[in-house]
Backbone:
């Protein structure tokens, strides 16, 4: 494998739809009531993509340095474990994506507010710093939160609340408390992706980290997965009923059979056999966010 292919492989581009789901939904809800320039949308999406790639690269490096990505791993073997890239290569690439996050994030804030020197852009700058820190420290650092069973909390916060409400705030310069409902829905779906990943990797994770499935066991982790999906649907249905304008608002119901299929796979499979359940949940959540957003705009 060439270095270029190895870098692209380690970017884990298949994870991008999940990171974009909350941003797309928050953006489309905002566009229902506010205007946004094309450049603002471009900077917002680029910032999101770069943060996700930074997270993926940092996670691979952290897992490799701690010995988690060994031969016993149920999931795919990435570039470092295969020897296609060195640790020094990874550190350089991570530095590049930190820079890109800063540049695109600053461009997004400037395009939206025209300044960095008021409380709103200052708040977003601080949030950006927190997002970069969170992206890097899931497995990196002396005490990574992903190894202490806190991954679910951070995924819910950043993939759900920050993603949806942050995108809305960038466009609208204000917030609506009801946004907590769709933000929580995307957050629960996103935690579900992490939970299935952790159920699959229970055996290889046991000697290296603490995860929710390792704490509560496989069966309870599957009950937890079911509760996450159900809670997400309760949140989005409550939001829709509260803001009902037309039948188009329920367009996202088209994804319900796919979530049912996902849960069926989770309950019937274990270990590596759970692999198909992950992309199914990722893509379904992205489609869900698109349909929910379109339902608001129509």
Residues:
């Amino acid at each position: 494998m060439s270095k270029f292919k190895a870098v692209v492989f380690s970017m884990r581009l298949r994870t991008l739809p999940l990171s974009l789901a909350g941003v797309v939904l928050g953006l489309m809800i905002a566009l229902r009531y506010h205007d946004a320039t094309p450049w603002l949308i471009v900077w917002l999406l680029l910032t999101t993509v770069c943060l996700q790639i930074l997270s993926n690269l940092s996670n691979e490096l952290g897992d490799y340095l701690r010995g988690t990505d060994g031969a016993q791993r149920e999931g795919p073997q990435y570039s470092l474990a295969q020897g296609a890239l060195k640790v020094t290569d990874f550190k350089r690439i991570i530095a590049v994506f930190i820079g890109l996050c800063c540049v695109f994030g600053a461009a997004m804030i400037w395009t939206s507010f025209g300044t960095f020197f008021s409380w709103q852009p200052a708040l977003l700058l601080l949030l950006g710093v927190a997002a970069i820190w969170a992206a890097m420290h899931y497995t990196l650092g002396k005490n990574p939160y992903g190894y202490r069973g806190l991954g679910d909390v951070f995924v819910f916060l950043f993939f759900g609340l920050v993603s949806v409400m942050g995108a809305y705030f960038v466009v609208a310069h204000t917030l609506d408390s009801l946004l907590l409902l769709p933000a929580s829905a995307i957050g629960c779906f996103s935690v579900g992706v992490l939970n299935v990943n952790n159920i699959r990797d229970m055996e290889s994770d046991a000697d290296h980290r603490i995860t929710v499935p390792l704490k509560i066991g496989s069966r309870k982790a599957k009950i937890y997965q079911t509760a996450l999906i159900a809670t997400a649907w309760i949140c989005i249905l409550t939001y829709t009923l509260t803001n009902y304008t037309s039948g188009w608002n329920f367009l996202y119901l088209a994804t319900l059979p796919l979530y049912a299929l996902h849960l069926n796979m989770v309950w019937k499979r274990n270990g590596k056999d759970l692999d198909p359940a992950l992309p199914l949940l990722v893509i379904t959540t992205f489609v869900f966010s698109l349909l929910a957003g379109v339902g608001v705009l129509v």
